[in-house]
Specification:
single chain, about 110 residues, mainly alpha, 4 helices, rod-shaped
Length: about 110
């Protein structure tokens, strides 16, 4: 198996052998750097998804807390007067979101 390759290489001049060697090193470098770059991008994407999921979970938790503490007591009394908590467009900005106070989540959402 090495005989045909050896005979091809022995027929080449030194300049062509050197060019072939540099080509193989260049292609190997591209393959290795591409693999490393793909792994880095994958790791960064996972970190971004985890960060956004944590923000979403914090907001969901604060909305649940707001509903338990503000909306349910108002609905249980059910008076005939207008209550802001009955309408989502008024009550949505109201949750006391702990993520708004955290410096880690500044700039995310409302």
């Amino acid at each position: 198996m090495l005989k045909p390759l050896q005979s091809i290489l022995s027929n080449l001049k030194l300049g062509k052998k050197f060019t072939l060697l540099l080509l193989l090193v260049f292609l190997g470098g591209i393959a290795v750097s591409g693999t490393v770059f793909a792994a880095i991008l994958n790791y960064d994407a996972q970190n971004q998804i985890t960060s956004k999921a944590e923000v979403l979970l914090n907001v969901t938790s604060s909305v649940r807390h707001y509903t338990d503490s503000k909306v349910i007591p108002v609905l249980s009394e059910l008076s005939n007067q207008f209550e802001v908590e009955f309408f989502i467009c008024y009550s949505t900005p109201q949750p006391d979101n702990p993520s708004r106070r955290s410096s880690q989540y500044r700039g995310h959402g409302g």
